[in-house]
User: Fold this.
Amino acid sequence: MVDERDFWILSQLRKDPFLSYETLGKGIGLSGKAVKTRIEALEKARILALLQAMPAAQVFDRLPRLLFFKEPAASLDKFYSAMKIDPVVFSTLDVDRRIAILVYELSGSRKHPEELTTLLGPIDSEVTPLFPHPQRELSKPLTQAELKVLRMLVSNLRVSIKEISQKTGLSQKTAKKTRRQLLDDGLFQIQPIIQSAQSSRILMFELHVHSSDKEVLARVNENLPKSVFLNQWEPTAIVLSCWANSISEVFETERNLKNEPGVNNVLVKFHTQAILSTSRLISWIDKEIVRFEKGKHCV
Assistant:
């Protein structure tokens, strides 16, 4: 059973996954032990399936593209099969069985994998996420140390500094500093794998708000209660993680936003499944590490 404090914990973990249980509990009057118990309960109920690190596409000299498919999924098998197609890294399935797929395309390529449209049907719309890294390219390539720390975070986001130090050969101080810098520089995003449709005490959902006016989007983000910012698509849309006490409250929020001056469109999404292709991301990081080591030996 999810309540408002669970939502707050998930929201804080999304912003900073390295917070201690004690720090997470301070803002809501819970002990560290109580926070740990709540997180374990969310995991046991499969509401919080995983808490994972998703590197920015630019780390691999790629660009992110989010694809929305027109037709509902005919079967769950197709949803899972889509994850086997390179360069798919993340996908979600909503209660209406509609699928969204995040691909990391090679820079300069605008052609989507034909296997995706063959499997899932025509693409309804597509957008470019601007978060976590808003630039088309990184200002500088990652160092070997950064790549090794990032690999460990993708494998296990909550891995201890001691273990990072042991497996990378970095001092604990350097490992901690590198981990923090990767997050602060937007080189990875925290991706809670939340099955929002399974929460029962409160309703958790995603809200997509579209506007051609960035000031309108900023106002919505600042003033909408019961929400936290998730992502931005191009300059025209923001994605918010929200909660409500009832489905009528969800509809009221949607209706009020549609009547907001300057808002072009509002979409409500309830996820039933979400998958991150950790193995593909790790394989790409490994290639970057090998490329780095080859370049070092050639100097």
Summary: Residues 10 and 144 are 31 Å apart (CA to CA). The longest helix spans residues 278-298. The first strand starts at residue 48 and ends at 55.
